[in-house]
Amino acid sequence: MDYLLLQMLNGVQLGLLMFLLAAGLTLTFGIMDLVNLAHGSLYMMGAYIAWTTISWTDSFVMGALLALPIIFVLGLVVEAVVARRLYARNHLDQVLATFGLILFFNELVRVIWGPAGKSIAVPAFLNRTVEILPGVPYPAYRFAIIVVGAAVAILLAWLVARTRIGMLIRAGASNRRMIGALGVNIELLFSLVFGLGAVFAGLAGLMAAPITSVKIGMGDDILILAFVIIVIGGIGSIKGAFIAAMVVGQIDIVGRAFLPDLLKTFLSASAASSAAPAISQVLVYIVMAGVLVWRPTGLFGQRT
Amino acid sequence: MKSKLFGTATIAALATVAAGALPAMAQSPIKIGFVSTFSGPQAAIGEDMRRSVELAKEHLGGKMGGKPFEIVYEDDQFKPDVGKQKSEKLVQQDKVNFVAGYIWSNVLLASLKTVTDEGDTILISANAGPSQIAGDLCNKNFFSTSWQNDQTPMAMGEYLQSKGVKSLYLMAGNYAAGKDMLAGVKRTFKGQIIGEDLTKWPDQLDFSAELAKIRAAKPDGIFIFYPGAHGVQFLTQYAQAGLKGQIPLYQVFSIDAITLPLQKELALGTLGAQEWVNDLPNDANKKYVADFKKKHGVYPSYYGAQSYDAIMLIASAAEALKGDVSNKDKVRAEMKKANFKSVRGDFKYNTNQFPIQNFYIQEAVKDPEGMMTVKTIATAMKDAKDPFYEKCPMK
């Protein structure tokens, strides 16, 4: 039972990180109709910028707080310089241009921070375990990710459901042209959404940094998973992204934690141990395919 | 039309002259291609190898058998496809006489044929030792200055067996070397294997699910193979999960001179196996380690030591042939003698051209200046042969 709880928490932690990344992606895709492959680069920039601000301030929390506005500004700049010109273009142009952005950011990082990658240490006050239940320790840093991730998810839910900006975002996601026609300052809205997406991606990047490591192209691998999440959840839907991220987080953990033992019940031990990693790597895509057969626009997709 | 024909004829004539002149240009340097990882989180390993190759060059005075030599470095970016491309470039475009390096078994496996068969060039692996190349795929153009993947974990398994460890939980990256490593430890460790995880390689750096499984499985010890950046992450997360002090960790290739500056005190006391340790008491090693430390202020790693040996092995053949490395049969015959002062101490080549050598148990400690390092505490295997050489058709 303790074991199950630990593994579920691991899944929640991964899911929340993925949600932060997917939230921005689904908004830019849903509202601006922009396929932004460079969203993973913002995740990477979040980690690198945080590495710099953390080494300036000598404090993880201060550094992270300082990094977030910088990433917001970076998001605005990327939107104004590149993304804005792409909204009216077709998806292929967008893919090409934002792929170019990935190459640009990877080279930029190489020039500024060098090719070798960096590591961010877990802040000292979180470098221990907390007892979530008596006798069940859990790494405090991962617990902190869950807390921060959940807080951001709640904040975002409030923002989207209860505020005027959120209303415009929802309206934009369901009918982009109409809100422009109604006289809403759509450029400002787009900038804001892009900047917000960048902050969430950056936050995910800097929180993941102590667990993985800060390296060139760190966002490229995880971006694929983020796309899977927004496709499962339905493009443009924050709620969908959240639920899909939670599902994907749990699937990943199930694949890693339970699948090998499950396979061993009807396969030989060696066949199971070589098949399990392969299956767990494609499990997410199988689920995505299943969801798409059942609901072609995703779980909470707006458009038909 | 006429002038064009004339032009072609001239070029053809010039080319013939140039081709004829080539052997006469005896002073053209010996060229060695060196493939390693020089970017990304594993770049520190490549840098350690490059430093050692440069040190070998310095110790040789820039010459082999009286001939100057040059090194062409290529970055495999930690990717098999890129490694293959770069190997192809070295052989076909740079026309190198030797290709050395290769940290990763999957990169080496992807590049092997390009160099040894299509390019008919001699390849010296300075690290990777996949089981395939020791057995069925063994090749007259392939030499190793490292080990076969199974051997180091076999040494660790034998030691744990002798210390009475009852059960182990095994973890490694899911690629060629990871599978060899787990097979290796199982060859010699006869206790219970409580659990076994091959994790997605190289993407997975988050081991939370596996560590939770280990906590629940309660083994006597954990055996891991996570080289470079992955080793740093594993050790940190192992400590964060509160397992340090509860379940002892045993490792191969996961705690070394490259990872220790990042792992620091977390590594203290952890045991591992290796064919080379920086404190091995032979003269070649003392000189190598002292000069490396003087130059760079840090200890070299086994990656570096094996790279240093790779250059010294080539040099020994070039010396014996007075700098003429054009006859491949003669070069191979000379290399097979392993007639040089290896930093691990003298070794012989087996029929599959992997070393027959000792393996040691090492412990992570602090040196008198407070720098993290490893020291030898036992000899686990003497003159060990890898378990695959009998499958190799070469005799």
Topology:
The complex is a heterodimer of chains A (304) and B (395).
Chain A: H1 2-32, H2 39-57, H3 60-81, H4 91-113, E1 129-133, E2 136-139, H5 140-162, H6 164-174, H7 176-181, H8 186-208, H9 218-233, H10 238-257, H11 259-264, H12 269-294
Antiparallel strand pairs in A: 1-2
Helix pairs in contact in A: 1-5, 1-6, 1-8, 1-9, 1-10, 2-3, 2-4, 2-8, 2-9, 3-8, 5-6, 9-10, 9-12, 10-12
Chain B: H1 2-21, E1 30-36, H2 43-59, E2 63-64, E3 67-75, H3 80-92, E4 98-101, H4 105-118, E5 122-125, H5 131-134, E6 142-144, H6 151-162, E7 167-173, H7 176-188, E8 192-199, H8 208-217, E9 221-225, H9 229-240, E10 249-252, H10 260-263, E11 271-274, H11 283-296, H12 302-320, H13 328-336, E12 348-349, E13 355-366, E14 372-384
Helix pairs in contact in B: 2-12, 3-4, 6-7, 12-13
Task: Explain what you see.
The complex is a heterodimer of chains A (304) and B (395). In chain A, a hairpin with a 2-residue loop joins strand 1 (129-133) and strand 2. Chain A has helices at 2-32, 39-57, 60-81, 91-113, 140-162, 164-174, 176-181, 186-208, 218-233, 238-257, 259-264, 269-294; strands spanning 129-133, 136-139. Chain A has a two-stranded antiparallel sheet. Chain A has 304 residues and is mainly alpha-helical. Chain A has one domain. In chain A, helix 1 packs across helix 6, helix 2 (39-57) packs parallel to helix 4 and helix 9 (218-233) crosses helix 10. Helices cover 41% and strands 21% of the residues of chain B. Chain B has 13 helices and 14 strands. In chain B, strands 7, 8, 9, 10, 11, 12, 13 and 14 form an 8-stranded mixed β-sheet that branches. The chains are: A mainly alpha (304), B alpha/beta (395). The A-B interface holds A 2-3, 6-7, 10, 13-14, 110, 115-117, 119, 122, 127-129, 137, 139-142, 210-213, 215-217, 221, 252-253, 256-257, 260, 273-274, 276-277, 281 and B 38-41, 43-44, 47, 174, 179, 196-200, 203, 205-206, 208-210, 212-213, 215-216, 229, 232-233, 236-237, 240-242, 262.
